[in-house]
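Table 4 source record.
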Amino acid sequence: MLYFCLKNRKDMSDINMVAPRPVRIWLLVGLFMVLMQVVIGGVTRLTGSGLSITKWEVVTGAIPPLNAAAWDAEFEAYKATPQYEKINRGMTISEFKFIYFWEYFHRLWARLMFFVFVFPFAFFVWRKMLSPTLRKRLIVVVLLAGLEGFFGWIMVASGLRSRPWVNAYNLTLHFCMALIIFGYLLWTTFLAYQPESTNWNNSRFRKLGWVMLGIAFFQIALGAMMSGTKAGLFYPDWPLMGDGYFPQIIFDGSQWKGSSFIEYDKNPFMPALIQVLHRNVAYLLSGLIFYFYWKTRGLGNASFQIGSVMLLAVLAIQVLLGIFTLINCVGQVPVGLGVFHQAGAICLFGVLLFVVYHMRSDK
C-alpha cells in the first residue's frame, strides 16, 4: 500500500477520476470507526456509563487510572455527581470500574479516530492524492468532528449538575451531529469510488428520495429523544400504547405548556408524545419506502437496484428491532436490542444515502 501511495504522485485535480485505492480504503476505515463510535456511545448511554468521568481532559484523559489511589480519586469525583447520589449510591468500586470503562472506551475511540484520520489526510495532501473536492470535504469532516467533541462535553456536563442523567435535547444534538458526520463522510466516500453522475432523468423520484432521507433523519432524531427521555419504559407494548392507539395524556390541553417540554422527566406527557411521533413517523417512512421501491423497479443502474433491495431488507430488520426493543423495555431498556436498533438506524440512513446518490444528475 505504501508503494502505491508513493507511486501515485499525480495531482487528483479531475473530479471525475476515481480516488487512489489507499484513499478509498482509508475512507472506508473512517466510516467503520464512526459507526463503531455510535455503537460504543449507545452502550455507554444504555449502561448509564456516560457520567462516570467528570472531567474533559483531551490529552491527560487518555491515560486511565493506573493504581488504587487514582481509582479512588476518580470514584470520589463520581460520588459528587447527581447520578451517584440519586441512582447509584452504594455502588462498589468494581461496579464503578465497569461504567468507567465504557465512557473511557468511548473517549479513547474518539482520540483514535483523530489519529487515524488526520495523519493519513496530511500524507495524502502532501502526496497530492486528493482531488480539490475531496480535500475540501475532508476538511469539513475535521471541523465537524471537533464540533461534535464540544457537543459531547456539553451533553455530559448537563448531567453533572442537577439531573442524574444527561439532558435529552443535548443527547439528541450530539447524536444528530454524529449522523451528519457519518452521512457527509459516506457521501464523500461515494464520490471517491464513483464520482461520475448517473444522470437520473426522473426528478420526481429523486425529490422523493431526498424527502425520505429528511424524514429518516427526523425519525432518528426522535429515536435519540426516545432514549433521552426513556420513553420506551412508559409504553412497552405494541401496536397499542396502553389501552389505545394514542395515550390519553397527549389530548390533555393542560399538558401542552413549556414546562412539560423542559421538565420532561417530571410527568409522562413528553415521553408519550415522543413515542407517538416515533411510531407514526416510522409508519410513514416505511410506507414511502415501499412505494418508492415499487415505483422505481427496473429504473436506474444496477447499483441503484441493489440499493433499493437493500433498503427494503434493512427497513424490515430495523422495524423488527424497534418492536422487540420496545416490548422488552420492562424496567430498563435492553442494552443489546437498543444498541442494535441504533446501529440499524445508521445503516438505514446510509443505504438511503446510497440510493439517493445513484439518482444524481448533472442535467
